[in-house]
What does this fold into?
Amino acid sequence: MCCHFYVAETVSGRSEILFTPAELRVIERYGDYDRNTTRGKLDILLERFKDDSTKESAQAVIDKLGRISDKSYADLYSVRQRKMENEKEFSMENRFKVAREKAEKHNAEVKNLVVERRKGKGIVL
It folds into this structure.
């Protein structure tokens, strides 16, 4: 499993903080624009998580957010939000593209059927 590193300015200086993909997903899902709000939200939700791996990831996020600065968290949060928006937009664009191609193909087939029916009718006596 690939891990994402994030260089953050900590309270005691500059160091490297490791966020795993699972931890980044927790931030994406439950994060807020403010580091302390996110920590509080996760702290409240910690006991409600039924999945042990999510609970562990949330606890790790709480611990790591306590070690980074507000500015570093704001940067991390904004980058994750832009990434999510880009993925969503890209996904929507792809779905619209596929749907448009299917609709054009269907419309072309229907148009051909109508033309063939008209040709086949001829004069009925």
